[in-house]
Structure formats: structure tokens, C-alpha cells
Amino acid sequence: MTIPTETHAIRFHQTGGPEVLKWETVPLAAPGAGEVTLRNKACGLNFIDTYHRGGLYPVPLPSGIGLEGAGVVEALGAGVTSLKVGDRVAYCAAPLGSYAEWRNYPADKLVKIPDSIDFNTAAAMMLQGMTVEYLIRRTYTVKPGDLVLFHAAAGGVGSIAVQWLKALGATVIGTAGGKEKCAIVKSLGADHVIDYRAEDWVKRVKELTDGKGVHVVYDGVGKDTCIPSMDCLRPRGYLVTFGNASGPVPAIEPLLLSQKGSLFLTRPTLMAYTATRADLELSANALIDVVSKGTVKINIGHTYALKDAAQAQSDLEARKTTGSVILLP
């Protein structure tokens, strides 16, 4: 295939709302040492993209956007021996710029995907699925019989987590907003589903656990749920806050953890858990295994044209989406 010298990508020149995202023509250079040129077949949409765009996680401007994608290797830079032209690959790490038709990308951050997993599924599962992997297998190692509370369980991360947690033998309590989203969480296998819009979810968790509380809370919502989640934990329970969908978590005094029952608090990131090639492969291989076996099914709830990324992000922030969301070049 002839490789173009320019391509289309979504970029932003200032932080702000979805309207700052622009569909632009950008040059495509030959791949540098250690890089490959990718033809993206699908791009993943994630909440972290909105944090970059909005300035919560500052990046140098102007900038591309997006961390996740899947596609085909079309050219190799100097020194690349682990891949060949034609390989099917996926990725979910910096540098930003997955919202693009073509791009150059470091070879050592790419993962080969088997033919059994299509490009749309690969783009929808990498960041969210590897996030679930490190959360439930390494941040707090979920064991059979553990009681788990997972917020936003109808979303991309949550829908993968519910299925994987059940496979590990956990009792899963999921929260979601509205009857439709709650029905989705129930269909994924959650033992209990709480509509946070209609119920006192802290009180309900206590009822479901006979007042004992859960072993671990996984919270990607942030400001609205993090502090109240402490009251859902049993003594020496784990509060794992990994996202800011409702805004940044307020400051937490260490003494509060003592007062709430000698709790553990952690704020992990996928970057830290996949910083080495060994950890990246461990996480990706575990995810590919459960998806290939059908243990975890990836729900692509919404698909947008790549040029409509602003609308996709707007819908994501308005909580109009369920499951994973992908952008198609």
C-alpha cells in the first residue's frame, strides 16, 4: 500500500469544551527509529480524552488527542524487529494522537491482536479492559467470595469489570443511573444493581451486605461518589479511585481513613501498571485471553465517524453512552 504524506486527524489548539476539537489535515512523516506507521482501523473513546481536552491533565498545545486504537502496520522505522508490515496491532498509551487516519507510533507499545478479535473490538477493549485487569487483579486482587462495589457499571470499564469480576467468583454490586442502564448491568451478571438516581446507594449497599460493607470499591466517577463510598466499606477495606467523570476527588485527610475503619486508599493509573514491556504484555495477554474465550464480551454501545469526535465526547460527558464507544476513520 502507498503511504500518504498527509492524513486527517482530530487536534485542539486550546483547552475547553468539545467544540475545541478540529478535523485537520496534518503531515505524515516517515516512521522514526523504533516507530512504525499505522493505518488506524478504529479508535477508542475514553474519559481521559476529555481530561486532556479540558485541561485537567495538561498537555503541550497544539496537540493530537486519543490514546487508544487498532490498525495495521504499514511501514517500519529503523531498528524495529518485533513487528512486520501487515501485522494487526492495538495500543492504549501515550503519545497522544489516536484520533487519526494514519499515524506513527512506538513499536514497543504495540500489542499484536489475534485474527479472532476484530479491529472494532480491539479498539474498544484495550484501555478499558487493561484498566479492569490491573484494578481487579493487581491493585486489589479480587478473590472468590469478595464483595465488590463498582460504580458506573454500565459504562465501558464497568461493563467489562462486571463480567470479569463474576468470572473471578466475586459478588458484584453495580451502580448506574436510570432503569435502562441498570438493566444492562443486570444482564452482564451483576448480583445487585443500584439506581443511584432513585435510591440511597450507601444505605442500599449496607443492606445488601448485612451492615458489614464490601471488601473493595472501584470508583471512576470521582467527586460525587468517592467520599460516600468510604461508608460502603468494611474495616480495612480498599477504596480504589481511578477516574474523575463527575470532577476531581476532593482532598482526603489521612485521619478520615482511620475514622472510617482503617481503610486503604489508592489512586492508580494504567500508565503505572503497564510502564514496562513485561507489565504491558501481562495485562494485554490477560485481557486478550478472557475476550478470546468469551468470558468477557465487549459491548460497543456507540459508533461515530472520527470527524464527529466532538459530538462523541459531548455525548460521553452527558452520560448518554453505554458500553464502549469507538470512532471510525
UniProtKB/TrEMBL annotation:
InterPro entries: ADH-like_C, ADH-like_N, ER, GroES-like_sf, NAD(P)-bd_dom_sf, QOR-like, Quin_OxRdtase/zeta-crystal_CS. SUPFAM superfamilies: GroES-like, NAD(P)-binding Rossmann-fold domains. Transmembrane segments: none annotated. Pfam families: ADH_N, ADH_zinc_N. Keywords: NADP, Oxidoreductase. Coiled coil: none annotated. Residues 16-327 form the Enoyl reductase (ER) domain. PROSITE patterns: QOR_ZETA_CRYSTAL (PS01162). PANTHER family: QUINONE OXIDOREDUCTASE PIG3-RELATED, QUINONE OXIDOREDUCTASE-RELATED. This is Quinone oxidoreductase. It comes from Dongia rigui.
